[in-house]
Amino acid sequence: MRLFVSVDLGGLGKEIDRLQAPLAELSGLRLTDSADAHVTMKFLGDGDHDLDALSDAIDAAIDEADVGAFEATFDRVGAFPSTAYIRVVWLGVGRGAEPLTALHRRLEAETTALGYDAESHEFTPHVTLARMEHAAAKADVQAFLREDPPEVGPVHIDELRLKESTLTGDGPTYRTVARFGL
User: Fold this and answer.
1) For residue 124, is it left (φ>0), alpha (ψ between -120 and 50) or beta?
2) What is the pLDDT of residue 10?
3) What's the pLDDT at 38?
4) pLDDT at residue 148 in the model
5) Active site amino acids
6) Residue 45: is its pLDDT beyond 90?
7) pLDDT tens-digit profile of 125-176?
8) Is the dihedral of CA 4, 9, 76, 22 positive or negative?
9) Which long-range contacts (CB under 8 A, 24 or more apart) does 28-31 make?
10) Which tens digits make up the pLDDT trace of 51-78?
11) In the chain, what percentage of residues exceed pLDDT 70?
12) CA distances from 173 to 13, 23, 38, 146, 154 (A)
């Protein structure tokens, strides 16, 4: 079972569709499905998971982060690993980044205590807009990244979800395994 912890943003689907529109016809980009929009808080990987222990760890992380429900907006675009070498095009969190980062820090501590791998990079709360499969339209994507995007949201965030991801030829499919209120 391939699992991750997320904040789901399906309610922003139409706004994300509008933001993705300039990318839709570019060669070498695979857009993500806006209906599945989410911020990945912690990728847990593939394997046999002790769901009870994992649920306890997520509950503990939420308690320790003590952020409660909050509003978030998305107001910048970027690329991983860089604008020179683009693999992922993303929409970044503006307002609401602090509570997401606090939740991530606590999730990281609780899940690594269970034996999950620590993240190898700094946490950047974001929604993946597209994945770049080849660089034919790199200049167009770089131009998109230089534009000031419209603010997306706000969205009310009141839960984390433990999600299962199944990789298919048409992209990943997701199933919510458990919900955890903030």
Assistant:
1) beta
2) 81
3) 97
4) 84
5) 38, 126
6) yes
7) 999 999 999 999 999 999 999 998 889 999 999 999 999 999 888 888 999 9
8) positive
9) 28/132, 28/133, 28/134, 28/135, 28/136, 28/137, 28/138, 29/89, 29/130, 29/131, 29/132, 29/133, 29/137, 29/141, 30/130, 30/131, 30/133, 30/171, 31/129, 31/130
10) 999 999 999 999 999 999 999 999 999 9
11) 100
12) 16, 22, 13, 31, 25
Number of Cβ within 10 Å of residue 40's Cβ equals 17
**Which residues, in sequence order, are CB contacts of 99 under 8 Å at separation 6+?**
65, 67, 70, 157
The domains located in the chain, with CATH, are 2-181 (3.90.1140.10)
Residue type, 15: E
